[in-house]
Amino acid sequence: MTLMAAARTTARITGALTRLTGRSMPRSFLGGSGDGYLPEPYGISGSSFSTTAAAAEESPERMFGLLKDYEDYRRAMYGGLTHKALLVDAVGTLVIPSQPMAQIYRQIGEKYGVEYSEAEILNRYRRAYEQPWSRSRLRYVNDGRPFWQHIVSSSTGCSDSQYFEELYNYYTTNKAWHLCDPDAERVFQALRNAGVKLAIVSNFDTRLRPLLRDLNCDHWFDAVAVSAEVEAEKPNPMIFLKACELLGVNPEDAVHVGDDRRNDIWGGRDAGCDAWLWGSDVHSFKEVAHRIGVRV
Q1: What is the mean pLDDT of residues 71-95?
Q2: Measured between alpha carbons, how far is residue 279 from residues 216, 276, 285 in Å?
Q3: Residue 128, burial from CB neighbour count under 10 angstroms (0-12, 13-18, 19+)
Q4: Buried b (16+ CB within 10 A) or exposed e, 65-83
Q5: Which of 99, 107, 113, 181 has the greatest number of C-beta atoms within 10 Å?
Q6: C-alpha radius of gyration, the chain, whole number
Q7: Residue 2 CB partners (closer than 8 Å, separation 6+)
Q8: Residues 153-174: tens digit of each pLDDT
């Protein structure tokens, strides 16, 4: 594909994505660059997205053809690979809660006098989380305790410190989480063998690193960008840029995979990265590797 043809293809993709999202693509996407669970780290599905009527202008077949042309162009540039680095969201993409949050809040809370039903806990949790956090511009500061104490007491009506500590510590263990894709280790090893660098990009507090060690997956990644450490939360582009800096790659050379359209897709693209929505654009890490150009 010639540079002129590639430019035309990229422009067509940009226009199609703009119609699909109802939102303009950042300028960086024009140069060939592009966590759902709400919120991390408790994994409550709640992100919403409505497509515009204009999305009908682009058929799925046409979109697929445009994206294939674009990825073929990138492979030609990068020696068979579409990207030099893969950024991965944590909760909802790499790992998911082993049991529903409201169920755990209720089970552990019974001995502390929590009487709300699981449905009530979930509704109160969502309302509390959606409210602005007035004590800091970041929700996850250091270990995140003040924020999570607020969320737990708002969700359950219980402010018992022992209850909070038991609940907080539970979510630090591998009992609370499991890998979303059982083939993840094999795929990530294949990607690294092919020269693709890997990083976690997550809105999480400082429990993330010990949790990854407990799940025995911390060594899969070359870098970890945690919002509590970077002091920037997705969709802020700074956390993606920090991950790219840690990997030693330019944003346009990286693709981010996550399950939240606002935090992961819009945030990643605003940073100049490509971004694929987990559960929609890709459904497994093997599919991610295949799109990058690595056989597993």
Answers
A1: 87
A2: 24, 9, 11
A3: middle
A4: ebbebbbebbeeeeeebbb
A5: 181
A6: 20
A7: none
A8: 999 999 999 999 999 999 999 9
Nearest Cα residue to 262 out of 71, 23, 52: 23
Contacts of 285 (CB under 8 A, 6+ apart): 181, 183, 184, 187, 188
Tokens for 277, please give them: 């929505």
N- to C-terminal Cα distance for the chain?
27
CA distance 277 to 295: 21
Backbone angles phi, psi at 13, to 5 degrees: -65, -45
Q: Is the pLDDT reported for residue 28 higher than 60?
A: no
CB of 288 within 8 A of CB of 86?
yes
Closest CA to 211 of 35, 40, 36, 38: 40
- On the question of pLDDT at 135 being above 90, the answer is no
Task: Work out the average pLDDT over 45-67.
Answer: 50
Going by C-alpha positions, the residue among 256, 253, 261 that lies closest to residue 239 is: 256
Token pair for 53:
């009527």
Q: For position 80, what pLDDT does the model report?
A: 83
What type of residue sits at position 136? S
Structure tokens that stand for 16 in this block? 């199609």
DSSP 255: E
Cβ neighbours for 14, distance < 8 A, ≥ 6 positions apart: 25, 29, 30
Confidence of residue 70 (pLDDT cuts 50, 70, 90): confident
Residue 296: both structure tokens together = 């597993």
